[in-house]
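ZP: hey, is the adenosine-5'-triphosphate complex queued? I don't see it on the tracker
AM: it wasn't, my bad. submitting now with these inputs:
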Amino acid sequence: MIRIDIADLTIHRGGRAVVAGVTLALPSPGLVGIIGPNGAGKSTLARAMAGQPGARTGRVLVDGTDVATIAPARLAERIGYLPQTFQPHWDITARMLIALGARRAAGVPPGAVEAAIGAAGLTGKADRPWPSLSGGERAQALLAAVTVTDPPCLIADEPGASLDIRHRIALMRDLRRRGRTRLVVTVLHDLELATAFCDRLVLMEGGGVVAEGTPAEVVASGRLGEVFGTVFETAVHGGLTVARPAIGEFLCG
Ligand SMILES: Nc1ncnc2c1ncn2[C@@H]1O[C@H](COP(=O)(O)OP(=O)(O)OP(=O)(O)O)[C@@H](O)[C@H]1O
């Protein structure tokens, strides 16, 4: 189990606050989605949670300890961070990347790399040069490299961006399963999947948190349409509130 608390966090980039006075409590377990329009500060917040050093005011606490004071090796064992983009400029294969990921933590069982390759659907492709993998295959390999150690906390920035819909749904199911016993924080642009699968949502705009709670609470806040500048329709499936852009409104308008 792990707990991340963010206390009045402000991060400046390019002379302005791109994360502005954010206070959040993220207790484990659970799947938390960070949503918001482009430039809202989601990735900057996710990186700060993962311990990226840099000038800031306020604090990110991991189990009550300021993340800035935790040794990198210890942090790597506790938090797996999947960046939005990753472009190796050396010759690497998926197997090498996943094996490197496995070295972040002690006690990773023998066979974990092979199992992760299989679970990521990369059997037969794991020894190919990185550039020969498709965008979706690379995304699966990256996620496997981060989750191979089964960290108590996974922070993933748009992990499904290059996946087709079947794989995106499979990914969300996997994150939700992981979120039953771990803390999973993921930046998401697909609001339908975010509202359907996440336990909690954090809606950001202009560096601040404008709504936070269960998907039903965030939808009920009425801020989604305002923040994204679009019209949403909501549906309730089996007690879950799912929001999606009302595409029909635009086709007819
Ligand atoms: N080094 C930097 N210098 C200047 N501005 C920066 C820097 N890093 C980030 N920003 C700005 O900070 C804001 C927040 O960026 P961030 O990547 O956190 O947004 P985001 O919500 O993840 O966006 P997206 O959905 O487009 O990925 C953006 O306006 C970005 O241009």
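AM: back. The mean pLDDT is 93.
ZP: great, adding it to the tracker
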